[in-house]
Write a structure and sequence with these properties.
alpha+beta, outer membrane lipoprotein receptor (LolB), chain A, 13-stranded antiparallel β-sheet, about 45% strand, single chain
Length: about 270
């Protein structure tokens, strides 16, 4: 009887070992579940997005700016070959009741648009936009899953805002890492964190984004209507969307400079 029990125990352990996931397998599974929870093919088929609502800016945890905001995003078709780390997204940020304050980001450039003309943004602002985009979990799941050298590694379970989460490190070929917290119940991303260097003084900055209030924005595609960003533990930005629309017939001139627009001296 003892020998039989020992044999059964060993068989059970062997079976559980065969079924056990590696940290990389678990991380990839969690990411795949998140993509499915975001709508799967409906999420991947998102060609463009318009987020409308209220945007708040903070300095030292105090409100420093409030505006009606409309953020237009267009995803570009992927070429047959593309260097890892290049962007396939353009963004137009329009603030104010009449959308009079406009920032335009293309893949490699950025401009502030006014009635005087288009003023190129400082290199540090363009670089920050590029880093923030490449390490954004929604961009990663839509645009970078097949990127050579990208892998997912589970850091196990934890709690965020009293809810159980799966924590996954996403690492690319340049060894740049973003840590994402996925809700164990909904499978959706709730928090992400990465570190970058300040281009001016090279200090280490912790960038955190928190996502909440997901809603179906069309065809089963999900998007967070509440986004908060923190830097080194201090809140710097919040966006509360009243509406999010996808796959609209957005004009090309929303994402390009008019041919006759005056180019002003670059910001320093």
């Amino acid at each position: 009887m003892r020998m039989l029990l020992a044999a059964l125990l060993l068989a059970g352990l062997a079976g559980s070992g065969a079924r056990a996931e590696t940290n990389e397998q678990r991380g990839k599974r969690v990411a795949d579940e998140a993509l499915a929870a975001l709508g799967g093919q409906a999420f991947l088929a998102m060609r463009n997005r318009t987020e409308s609502g209220r945007a708040y800016q903070f300095y030292s945890e105090k409100l420093s700016g409030l505006a009606l905001a409309r953020i237009y995003t267009r995803y570009l078709a992927a070429p047959e070959s593309q260097e890892p780390g290049s962007l396939r997204e353009r963004v137009r940020q329009a603030l104010g009741k009449k959308q009079e304050d406009v920032i335009l980001f293309t893949q490699e450039t950025g401009y502030e648009l006014t009635f005087r003309g288009a003023r190129p943004l400082p290199d540090k602002d363009i670089q920050q936009f590029k880093v923030n985009t490449l390490r954004n979990i929604f961009y990663i799941l839509r645009e970078r899953l097949d990127e050579p050298g990208l892998f997912f590694e589970s850091r196990g379970s934890d709690f965020f805002e009293n809810r159980p989460v799966e924590v996954v490190d996403i690492v690319d070929a340049n060894n740049d890492t973003v840590t994402v917290y996925f809700d164990q119940m909904t499978k959706l991303p709730t928090r992400q964190r990465f570190f970058r260097r300040d281009p001016i003084d090279n200090t280490r900055l912790e960038e955190v984004s928190i996502f909440a209030k997901y809603r179906d924005v069309g065809g089963g595609a999900m998007w967070p209507f509440s986004i908060r960003r923190e830097r080194n533990g201090e809140k710097i930005f919040e966006m509360y969307s009243d509406s999010v629309e996808i796959n609209q017939d957005l004009r090309d001139d929303l994402f390009t400079l008019p041919a006759d627009m005056k180019i002003l001296p670059k910001q320093k």
